[in-house]
Amino acid sequence: MQVMPDKTRHGGRIWARRNASRALTLATVVALAAAVIVRPASADFEAGWAAYQRGDFAAALAAWRPLAEQRMARAQFNLGVMFDEGKGVERDLMRAMEWWRKAAEQDMAEAQHNLASLYIAGEEVPQNLAQALVWLKRAAAQGLARSQYTLGKFYAYGLGVDKDEREAATWFFKAGRQGYARAQYNLGKMYRDGRGELPKSLTEAAKWFELAARQGYVKAQLHLATRYARGEGVPQDRVTALAWLTLAAEQEMQRAIDNRKALLLQLSIGEIARARTLADALGAEIGK
Amino acid sequence: MLDRRPIFAAAVAAALSLGPWHSPSAAADVSEGEATAFIQHLGDQAITVLRASGRTLEQRESQLRALLRQGFDFAFLGRFVLGNHWRKATLEQRRDYQRLFGKYVLKVYTSRFGGYAGESFTIVGARQAGMTDVLVSTRIGRPSGPPLLGAWRVRRIDNRPRIIDVMIQGVSMAVTQRSEFAAVITRSGLEGLIEALRARTSKMPAAA
């Protein structure tokens, strides 16, 4: 709304100054009018988010739907989530897909991941691993840890691609370095077994298991406990082993429950008490 | 689907009471009073969780799932839903499947509830179902929308009441999932089902 005056001549500058101030006034009026009539999109989005958090899904939908229709990617993505989860609407995976596709095409990584998930899940949408890969790769390339991990799994199992454990490890590293627990756990297993052209290293395995275990990932806790029980990659320490088994058992993992029972029989009262204290301390760290 | 419902319900009653893992135990079967009290308590706890302030929607949903996990017998339910394929599954597959199955059921059946605040939870009835079970009917009132009618099938397992099926609007969750999973396994095997469950439970949540 700016008048671009001609400034090449003195007369022009006076004209420019007079018209500029008039243009400024006009611009101000228009801006004020706009502020009254048209709320900034972000305010509506925030209002929708607040409603969503409250559980007022009808209000969230009312806030986000117009934004989605105006091509706001985050609003499109969230609408997809609501259709996928049946929040405020009947669960409808086809609608979820439509909205996620729109956001995915605008390069929103989270939408790309969810779209890929629909193609893998094969619920109402027939399974299509090739399409899943297209979107997974785009999301992974943008750095979304969850997609990087899933891509790693695809390469590890040869889903829609040739099995390639080295490529799997590459993607697990990308996700693992971002702190994605499942990827860390898988790296632990690969180091333990020397797969994906990684050197067999129990020390590295224990390190990656511990990273995942400290985030509460139950399978990693079980594997870490085994390392401590056997002294593989870490100094043997059955008290620490019991502590990790206790945490894993609390998550109702049967093997942890069984292993814990067996280990309890081998330890002294003092050791068991120390393990309990350690488990509490570790658990408190995880809970943060 | 509508006209097959009564047959499904009967099939569920028959299947669940004659399943190989129903062991004639010395302990008494669950009574209507016990089952009702159990569901009421679970419902009260759920409402408390859902109304907790200062928590995000995701946190409330996560807590709700943790709560329901205590009340359900997913080991039983998962095996029932997988049917014959359970026998052929490896130990690793069984573990993966059970973990993902529980996650999937909880996610699908609680995400529409996660946001609720100010709802009412009322027990509207309880009756014997089959030889060992009690079906507790509930009505969940929602501020925006018609009430949700659900029935919880409760059985005494390992000496405490556990939920082994949910009927939503008259449709058995266990039976629905069983036929759905059977179709997936036919197409892409048990590994395919496991990957599908993994995909269904690892989507990104709504963006702030």
Which properties best describe this structure?
heterodimer; A: 288 residues; mainly alpha; 74% helix; B: 208 residues; alpha+beta; Nuclear Transport Factor 2, Chain: A; 7 helices; 5 strands; 53% helix; globular; disordered N terminus
Structural notes for this entry:
The complex is a heterodimer of chains A (288) and B (208). With 288 residues, chain A is mainly α. Among the domains of chain A are: 41-132, Serine Threonine Protein Phosphatase 5, Tetratricopeptide repeat (Alpha Horseshoe), CATH 1.25.40.10; 217-288, no CATH class. Chain A contains 15 helices and no strands. Chain A is elongated. Mean pLDDT of chain A is 89; it is low at 5-12. By secondary structure, chain B is of the alpha+beta class. Chain B has one domain: Tgt2/MlaC (Nuclear Transport Factor 2, Chain: A, Roll). Chain B has seven helices and five strands, in the order ααααααβββββα. Chain B has helices at 5-18, 32-51, 57-71, 74-82, 85-88, 91-110, 173-200; strands spanning 120-129, 133-141, 148-157, 160-168, 171-172. A five-stranded antiparallel beta sheet of chain B has the order 1-2-3-4-5, sandwiched between helices. In chain B, helix 2 (32-51) runs antiparallel to helix 3 and helix 4 (74-82) crosses helix 6. The termini of chain B are far apart. Residues 1-22 of chain B have low confidence and may be disordered. Chains A and B meet through helix 2, helix 4, helix 6 and helix 8 of A and helix 6 and helix 7 of B.
Q: How would you briefly describe this protein structure?
A:
Chain A is mainly alpha-helical and 288 residues long. In chain A, 74% of the residues lie in helices and 0% in strands. The longest helix of chain B has 28 residues.
Which secondary structure elements does this structure contain, and how are they paired or packed?
The complex is a heterodimer of chains A (288) and B (208).
Chain A: H1 10-37, H2 41-54, H3 57-69, H4 73-85, H5 93-105, H6 109-121, H7 129-141, H8 145-157, H9 165-177, H10 181-193, H11 202-213, H12 218-230, H13 238-250, H14 254-264, H15 269-287
Chain B: H1 5-18, H2 32-51, H3 57-71, H4 74-82, H5 85-88, H6 91-110, E1 120-129, E2 133-141, E3 148-157, E4 160-168, E5 171-172, H7 173-200
Antiparallel strand pairs in B: 1-2, 2-3, 3-4, 4-5
Helix pairs in contact in B: 2-3, 3-6, 4-6, 4-7, 6-7
